[in-house]
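anyone else get weird line breaks when pasting these?? whatever heres mine. first is seq + tokens for prot A
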Amino acid sequence: MPGPANFQTVPDQAQIDRLTRNLKFHPVDNPDPRKLSRDQIEQFNRDGYLKGIRIFTESESRENRRYFDGLLARVLAEGGHELFDQYGPPQAWPRV
């Protein structure tokens, strides 16, 4: 029987560099929009974002906040920094 699978949850930079990715912007072309208006789609294609759209209910927002507050508490308890990302804590970031 084979052993348990071993995989990384987050790929390292070398794995990311090997991916073939197309990160260019692709405008939305929807002749029959159901949720957004044609003006909103045009604005998104022009500006790249929309604002003022409710995505989560108030209850979902509270639950998301509880989850991320708990996640941050665990990171801080393990010696992490609240602004930690793939480059390390802010003091390790290169100055530009």
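and prot B, same format (seq, then tokens)
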Amino acid sequence: MPGSTLIRGQQIEMAKVACLRLLSELRQQDLDFASMEKIIREDVSFSYKLLRYVNSALFHVRSDIQTIDHALVVLGEQSIRHWAALGRSSGAG
């Protein structure tokens, strides 16, 4: 089935696999921004949600942030973890 992965006899949607990869990365003591960027960039939903979040009024940025790398730098570790926690609690990436 396209867009899914087989794990122990069960198919898991690619979005869920990406979410699991992101959560695994977030468990690290020090975030690897390059790995985070790759995981987020590979999932359109994560990319959209991150850019929407970082460009929200919450962060008071003067110009639109258009790249995942720039968004991660602007947010920093603590806000990235907060963003991911919001995604987990809402059932989204």
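btw re prot B: The CA atoms of residues 53 and 59 lie 9 Å apart. Strands lie at 4-7, 10-13.
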